[in-house]
Amino acid sequence: MAKVHVTTTINGEPMEFLCEPGDTMLDALRGTLNLTGSKEGCASGDCGACSITLDDRLICSCLMLAVESQDHEIRTIEGMAQGEKLHPLQQKFLEMAALQCGICTSGMLVASDALLRKNPKPSEEEVRFWLAGNLCRCTGYDKIVRAVMETAAEMRAQ
Question: Where are the transmembrane segments (predicted)?
């Protein structure tokens, strides 16, 4: 089967790549584009480790075909940092030890960023609801939720 040519925008940069018609966006990101921050945890959309945004909509990249990214805007964990400077969420996750093994971290950060873009003043309940699609076996979620809440407060104060 012939490869498909895809033109899209990833992390603000125009991108072109070739992929098999059945390749997932996660396959393209990790294998073709060497953007390895998104992790494969389940390959069934149940864990959130591969979370990205597609036109500002939070999705699991393991459930999206790469060809569907044609003419869309994708943001991955690699797009969160501003040059060498960490995104405020990344900094707060480090400061508050809101991570352990790292498998879920990129998905948690992308999901948290997507939430704060939509709602800069979420309640704890809203943060917990928003992150419900991201599974973590190590941290117990409390540090993650507190890190998101503190980041939101600090970003509003700026």
Answer: none
